[in-house]
Amino acid sequence: MADEQHILTQAVQGGERKKQYQSSLVPAIFQTTTFTFSSLKEFDDFKDGKRDAFEYGRYGNPTQRVAEEKIAELENAEDSLLFSSGMAAICTILLAILRSNQHVIITQDCYRHTAQFFATLEKFGVDTTVVSPDDVGALSAALRPETRMIFTESPSNPHLHVIDLERLVGIARKANVKLVVDNTLATPINQRPLDFDVDLVVHSATKYMAGHNDVLAGVVSGNRGIISAIRDFHHMLGATLDPNSAYLLNRGLKTLGLRIKQQNQSALNIARVLEENENVSFVYYPGLTSHPSHEIAYKQMHGFGGLVSFELSGGLDKVEVFIQALGIPKIGQSLGGVETLVSHPASMVYYDFSDEQLEQQGISKGLVRLSVGIEDCSDLIADIKNALRSLE
Q: How far is CA 232 from the centre of its chain?
């Protein structure tokens, strides 16, 4: 599809043929493990790259391929590859690219299990340095001759740090290292890292891309060469997205632009309301001028996302009262779906951390994370205000 087409059109039409199987409007679910060939010559042509076909479900599926091509168009990528989860995507990328005696840099405030997997790479002889996402100078200073990769999440979770991609790409290019960006919280609607010359973009497609809290999926996008190398590992590891989940992901992608537009606006309105409340000591939302990353986010993003984190004065006791008083948001770990969810990172994500470890991670007992859905914004604001009044 032509680059000049708007992203909303790409979300609906991308990856889909003019005429689908049996003239179906919606791409079919190919619920099969095996694809057959009419002759050995046909199979040989397939293996030689002379014929486009599918062989075995672990290596790909037509339903999966529609979603991959749609995401590639949304990301301005040459190719995309789907996985059974976001962590499956991240782990496969690292196993495909990294070797022993190499060094990687990861920014703090990345998803906890991402950081945990980087730490486990030590047993394979890969050393990891963690740097602050707010200090690009420290990141540059952490580079070594054996550095192979920089991995960052922007915006990050839960503090919504936004890293300067243009500057980061310059550092990575000068050092000749791969740059991987987890773009889950932004989505290609709000930010396209590949447009800044990032090497790879990864998503937990479970979140905003699928958007309905009913699919586990991950995806990586980039140029064909590096995606092909990752696909080789993907085939061996078997972290394949099943056809039904690929179908649901494709359906979710069609409304991605509309959902993100609503979530962007609602989250910004809610962040402004929270910032004005005396029970809230700080709001983490890059759309607010008070956020440390606001200028960078304003420069490189098209919207600020649907996640809002904030500090409640009074610590854990106040948090419990506030969350219990909410009527619309449900308590849940995930984010990015049509339903608004509320979580308490110190209790739900970092529950096994000591107070010292929480402080090192920048997680306070008063921190609340709100994943804004697509409910009517006025209803959400009324509900939040009512819960805040319960703290008085």
A: 22
Q: Which of 45, 58, 251, 254 is catalytic?
A: 58
Q: Which residue out of 109, 134, 164, 182 is catalytically annotated?
A: 182
- Given a contact cutoff of 8 angstroms between Cβ atoms, the answer to whether 19 and 74 are in contact is no
The CATH number of residue 377's host domain is 3.90.1150.10
> Do 249 and 280 belong together in one domain?
no
pLDDT tens digit sequence for 63-101: 999 999 999 999 999 999 999 999 999 999 999 999 999
The answer to whether residue 100 is domain-embedded is yes
Asked if residue 2 is part of any domain, the answer here is no
Does 111 participate in catalysis according to the annotation? yes
Encode pLDDT of 321-366 as tens digits: 999 999 999 999 899 999 999 999 999 988 888 888 878 888 899 9
SS3 (DSSP) at 112: helix
Catalytic residue of the set 148, 207, 231, 259:
207
299 is catalytic: no
DSSP 313: T
Q: Given 65, 79, 111, 284, which residue is catalytic?
A: 111
Last residue of a domain, one of 220, 254, 288: 254
Of 219, 254, 289, the domain-final residue:
254
- CA distance linking residue 359 with residue 122, whole number of Å: 24
Concerning whether 182 is annotated as a catalytic residue, the answer is yes
